[in-house]
Amino acid sequence: MSTQLQTTVPQGPKGSLLGGNLMAYRKDPLGFLTDLQKNYGGVAKIRFGPQTMYVIYDPELLKELLITKQEHFIKLKAFQEARLFVGDGVATSTGEKHKRVRRLIQPHFTKAHIQGYAKQMADIVERELDTWQPGSSRMLTDDISDITFAIIARTLFSLEGKEHSRSIREPYELINRMCAERMRSLVSVPLFVSTAKNRAYKSALAALDYAVYEIINQRKSNPETGKGDLLSVLMEARNDRGEGMTDRELRDELMIMFIAGHETSANALAWAFSYIMRNPVVERKLYEEWDRVLQGAAPTEVTYMQLTYTQNVLWEALRLRSPSFFTGRSAIRDVEIGPIKLKKGQSVLFSPYAIHHNPTYFPSPLSFRPERFENDLLKRIPQYAFIPFGAGPRGCIGNHFAMLEMVIALCMIGQRYRLRLTPGHPPIEMEPLMTLRPKNGIEVVVETRT
Q1: In this entry, which stretches build a coiled coil (predicted)?
Q2: Residue ranges per domain, the chain?
């Protein structure tokens, strides 16, 4: 399926005199982003306060932005707010620093290396499932977050126990909401101003810092622990002057791995279960595949490749509810992207969530249809029409890791238990914060699968 590059001058909604389109975005971020695509096609022009920006939906323009002209851009300036807590790690740093750290981390995320994590991932899921009781009600979103956090902690940093999960996830919850609110404000109150919200924000940030620095200090005290894991690699790394990473630099890398590494997978899994529970045909097909391929066993690096329908269910969940729903780039010099003429400092945005709802590439885009990914769909649509993990040099470094852990968790939970929404459960709504998550979580009743 081909795509025709948009060449017309970008247009967009007028907006208000002072805020431009910011209030419309704040009121309904996802509706605003999808309406832009419906009304203006491959690229739209918007204004947030005094800043004129462009939102790209055309796959070929995305290719220019993320691949062919990527050296003209840095991570979106508007997302600098997130750096207050995640720091200057691999996902937020720029230039040579980003390249150096990515080179250090990349070997731990190759397909060959990740396959060695499968047994550890399965052990963690099984340990969590052993605490579940048939007939009990559970907050599924919390349980899945515990699983994905424990997987990151064990496989990459040789850490055990839920105390690390709680000490990082709990303060992050507050920061996540406040950071999203500050990013969508025309004017944010500087953090040095002592307001109740700022004090709460800084207190949560201090708790996050304490938890991560404690992990670093414990490893320094016992350097042989986890020899060869990602944390040891980062701590032993030296630049061309023979200098190692500072504690702050280590903190930043650990923070982004813990936060981004567990939350996006947890959200995607939660969304997948939300659809499975409402689609008995999909559930039946999953059972048939698991019974045929796994016969009650946990997935391995070998059987993973045979679980094609399970993978398609996850792809479809990622399409409908892309955890990273909105991001972008800022130009570091004057540059043209198709019909867009950007000045240095101007920003280009794109929304995987909205792009994945384009009916040109995904007919009946609101329907949950894992079968759409059969027969090599991704080879038949433009390469950048489906970007759940981003693309290009700044694409998600852990995409293969995430797919393996999600397949393992989905299969092991689904083989052992049948999940149903608790009676009277409210509709599951989307909550777009730093990522796209189920609002107020998903509570389920656990039934033994018969």
Answers
A1: none
A2: 1-77+325-387, 88-324+396-449
